[in-house]
Design brief:
This protein is mainly alpha-helical and 275 residues long. Helices cover 77% and strands 0% of the residues. The protein has one domain. It has 13 helices and no strands.
């Protein structure tokens, strides 16, 4: 049932270890603890899964997490700011859809390495963003981004989100620059990601990324979502968020560099341990 989701040469134990960790990390991140931790999920899964299956598998799970986030922030949103970045994001989503359509027609094998390298570069960028997140947010404070920056940010956010679910920093920085307070900021970001991800869903179906096999596989992973959310709330009172973010940053940097240079040191080391 899951043979098409496992890269050749990857053991089932290693596959489930990486995929389970990726989904649990998403749950932790969306729980409010270590908000940037979710950036590790996609590059981690790409070490054991085909690139198209990773993007497709994560999207329905992200939407479930988004639904939970906007339920808690259903009153905390600024529609004007959301429109400023969501409308241009539609252009980026369309561009990303064209890329996936081309990959689908040419075969994943033809462009798979390019997608991996793109995700690897994004992962390295995101790792440094985690390191400098507070400084980055302070840098944009009071520098209210206007419509032109909104269009540039939205197009890039839509494209990077469609290819690699990696629009977090650009959306967060744009929304934070509007200086609306923490509660409204968190809610507006949550609503923006919900709209972007919901828009991507029919696109993924149209370009044959999501089919029944992906949905069946997702059903096996759904129980890990509340587990990650519960773990995030448990860690909130017991684990240093800054320490956890440093660990995530380091792992994201390592996995990103492995995708860029097409090596899998983590897999090799774990294979030796599991023998």
């Amino acid at each position: 049932m899951i043979d098409n989701f496992i890269l050749p040469g990857v053991s089932p134990v290693l596959f489930w270890l990486f995929v389970s960790a990726a989904v649990i990390i998403q749950g932790i991140s969306k729980s409010g603890f270590a908000g940037g931790a979710g950036v590790l999920s996609l590059p981690l899964m790409m070490l054991v899964m085909p690139v198209d299956k990773v993007a497709a598998t994560l999207l329905p799970l992200l939407i479930l997490l988004d639904m939970n986030a906007i339920y808690h922030h259903r009153h905390n949103k600024n529609w004007q700011v959301i429109r400023q970045i969501y409308v241009p994001a539609l252009v980026g989503i369309a561009l990303g859809a064209l890329v996936w359509w081309r990959i689908g027609h040419a075969g994943v094998e033809t462009y798979g390495d390019y997608i991996k390298r793109f995700v690897g570069v994004m992962a390295v960028f995101l790792a440094f963003y985690i390191l400098a997140k507070e400084a980055s947010l302070e840098w944009v404070r009071g520098k209210k981004a206007g419509p032109r920056i909104g269009w540039a940010a939205g197009i890039f956010a839509g494209f990077s989100s469609t290819i690699a679910h990696a629009a977090g920093p650009i959306v967060s920085l744009f929304v934070f620059s509007q200086d609306m307070g923490k509660t409204l900021f968190v809610g507006t970001v949550a609503w923006t990601f919900t709209l972007i991800n919901l828009t991507k869903l029919p696109v993924y179906v149209a370009v044959d990324l999501i089919d029944l096999s992906v949905l069946r596989f997702d059903l096996m992973l759904v129980p890990l979502v509340p587990l990650g959310s519960w773990l995030g709330k448990w860690m909130h009172y017991r684990v240093s968020e800054s320490l956890f973010n440093r660990i995530i940053m380091t792992l994201t940097l390592i996995t990103g560099l492995q995708l860029v240079f097409n090596v899998n040191l983590i897999k090799g080391a774990l294979d030796l341990l599991l023998r």
